[in-house]
Amino acid sequence: MKIAVCQSNPIIGDIKGNKEKILAGYKRAVSENAELVVFPELFLCGYPPLDLVEKKEFRGAVNKASLEIATQTNNTALLFGTITEDYEDSIGTGVYNSAVLCYDGKIQFVQSKTLIPNYDVFDEVRYFESAKDVFVHEFNGEKLGISVCEDIWNDADYWKHRRYTVDPIQKLIDNKAEILINISASPYAYGKRKERYEMLKRLTKDDKVPLIYTCCVGAQTELIFDGGSMCLNSDGGLCLLGKNFEEDFFIYDTKKNYPSVENVEASFEEEVLKALIMALKDYAVKTGFKKALVGLSGGIDSALVTYIAAQAFGKENVHVIMMPSKYSSEGSVEDSRKLIQNLGISSDKISIQSVVDKALEMLRPAFNGKGDDVTEENMQSRIRGLYLMSLANKHGYLLCTTGNKSEIATGYATLYGDMCGAVSVIGDVYKTQVYGICNYINRNEEIIPKEIIIKVPSAELRPNQTDQDSLPPYDLLDRILKMYLEEQKEYDEISEAVREPETVRKVLRLVDMNEFKRKQSAPVLRVSTKAFGYGRRYPIVQGWRR
Amino acid sequence: MKIAVCQSNPIIGDIKGNKEKILAGYKRAVSENAELVVFPELFLCGYPPLDLVEKKEFRGAVNKASLEIATQTNNTALLFGTITEDYEDSIGTGVYNSAVLCYDGKIQFVQSKTLIPNYDVFDEVRYFESAKDVFVHEFNGEKLGISVCEDIWNDADYWKHRRYTVDPIQKLIDNKAEILINISASPYAYGKRKERYEMLKRLTKDDKVPLIYTCCVGAQTELIFDGGSMCLNSDGGLCLLGKNFEEDFFIYDTKKNYPSVENVEASFEEEVLKALIMALKDYAVKTGFKKALVGLSGGIDSALVTYIAAQAFGKENVHVIMMPSKYSSEGSVEDSRKLIQNLGISSDKISIQSVVDKALEMLRPAFNGKGDDVTEENMQSRIRGLYLMSLANKHGYLLCTTGNKSEIATGYATLYGDMCGAVSVIGDVYKTQVYGICNYINRNEEIIPKEIIIKVPSAELRPNQTDQDSLPPYDLLDRILKMYLEEQKEYDEISEAVREPETVRKVLRLVDMNEFKRKQSAPVLRVSTKAFGYGRRYPIVQGWRR
To answer: What is the pTM of this model?
Structure first.
């Protein structure tokens, strides 16, 4: 069977636009003689639609569009993800996350999702009931085994620990499915594409069926979808792999032989850089922003964010401000100028000192004679935030925040100061990884000035300050954080691994007590298996102590 | 049977403190000859523990404390809510939300929660498996039917639309339960206590069994628990009702007759005021803040928040700042002074004008000759935010934000300006309700100056500005918002009800497009069935249009 894979980028809620994408993909596939055209999970409404699903008006519009799409089909079949409803037994939400198969002008078959994920960034039990049953559907003489995303992630042979008792794919196999088709919206994290491939390889090899895995691409606020759709033959060979971080369209013929694709994943630096550029671009495209603004401190974080913005928006659409104070080193402005020149972007330099001084003068009496502390440091950061937001408001810039994951984890950031902005671009990238990515950017020529890369990290909020006055060395810090956040390790294990129990205790405590800041942070673009934001939920007020 | 109801206030994660509360309540109950002592749902770890449940170290500490508690019991039984684990079938989380019954030094019986709520503010499927079965347990010659919170909310006779197919309470009845005991952590919303009562009345009357409903009290970040534990006899009569918004301890004797309690709920104004005072106080107590700070504008919102803060912290612990600009009316400061006097709190008056002027002077060149717009208004608000945060940092104040629900809904607030703060005190109270509560506060004497109540609402960010330049009249606005947010009504229904389709369209659009601001808002204390925050989840980037 000739199957067209439409690896497209939907906009959540834009039913009209997504419908047009489906019809355009279908038309192209028909003209290229495909027998079946496949779009990803919940493509018609975009994934994840979140509480939009609870709106009757929204579900009505989605259903209407589904039916309209079906009327446009001929004898080439079209499979796409959408919301369906069934209130027959009047218990539960009555709403399903479904794959809808249309041909000859009608919806001919619906297979709803059986396994409803409800962990990390997934909240699907909030909206969707589990499919009542699983069937194969015969089309053009082949038994299609259709499933939706999570359905394929519960193979008893692959997983040591399973989330669900049911295995809908096994049911499809038992029902003699000859081609497996899975429509997905699988959020990106570095390493996940390889895991998908390993899992699908095992599954197709064991079950001796080819599989078409169609995934969406693009970013939806903080969630990144990398594409990388996969077609595997019945020996577990990867025949076709969709592009990463861009839309793609290709046709897989289950009867043809293909050379095996070997490389599914590039280096961390290459992948994550591409992911962040696409995600920032997509945020802008989907919200209508044309220009970006970054506060350039002279440090490596804002340098990387500026580079990413220049790639996402085009250099002519990126503006930066340098905002020195009396604590800023000469080097900071000089190094920033070099970067500005290398990238070919526009800039302003506006000192914050006179505004800081004026604000201090006004507030001094109310400080009641108390000496300098973190207040004065935060004030500098907040006046920079004020500058940035003022220019963003005046010129319609999208303001990018520049904090990295190590800082956000430990609360080494000022609320309403350097945390101001619409998107936290590198908030899921550790400081040590920031260095790695900058070195990768410089692999052929020096784009990020080496002065910025080699300087000692400092917030420059008081004389001779360095990050390491307050934090452990980043190598150690990031090692601890990664174990704690991504690997879900706890105090004992981490202490044993790094052999610095007091540092570990301090770091874990910093992470736990800074929930209140992260609650008010901009959405963090997610590139790891555990990012701050939607998929990580801790009480702000809590008394858990080790 | 003599049953002691311990309506207590746990701290999430403070296993040691919560354990001590359980043991103290048990000791008291034993000394008062109770046969059974009951604590609320997940009391040992606090509710909702959120992702703390995913920490092995945390679960281990909880389990250890459970066993330690059990060893302290004699022939008086102790029932409390905690996390239990069972990894027997190695599928799923293996973690349960359980009621644990101890006596004679041991855990004698465990009944886990069957119905796992996963809607609005509930995410329990993320953590907990459903109980494998439901049993009664005989103690002192009576068959106890024990259940946890949601288990009791699925009565087929009471609910037109049910969430779950299973009814664990029916199973308990079928198993001949003679006393029903439900341990709960049921978040407050105005109207909910009455609903609980109606539902429990129906259930006990139909099933002819008495019921002891034990609920926790206190606030956990944004969630408020009102207490109001209930003991009903087998005729559906409400025999005992726990205090609202405070801890309580009482003993119910299933063999005694009680006069029926009739009033379970006070007026909206009285209830919500009490709820907010308790919640703000609890936030402070549980995080260690001793003093509060409010920016006093002369408007009604900040007046109400200041009143609430004075009640929660004590007048000697509340400080306010008046921060006039050139657009502030004479009246604003005068009216604020009256309130300050009425409440007996301390204050500062610090003009923002010179800082605004200085910042404008510095930024002007970068404005590129563009005329005044919302930028200049936001700058005033942000400099006020800077002042507030600076004083909060310097003196360790808890900063209370003052935005009401009508403003937050429509985005009529400045990010990093008036939205600065740790807690959004009245963010779930509509503007029209703010008036109602202020009038209630003034029922005996004028505490909130009447000038503040009768003045035309204005942000005072430009000459002669009023809220109604940008927003529909609050009566109409709040009616639309309530239908849209709480009643889940959609455009067609709301338009038909209020007969102003264009206004409805505009308001709904404002709500939808201001998700990005709310993402970065302080936690909103929840007093309605649908508050902004944890229980309402919309994509920030989305294209849904009516």
So the answer is: 0.97
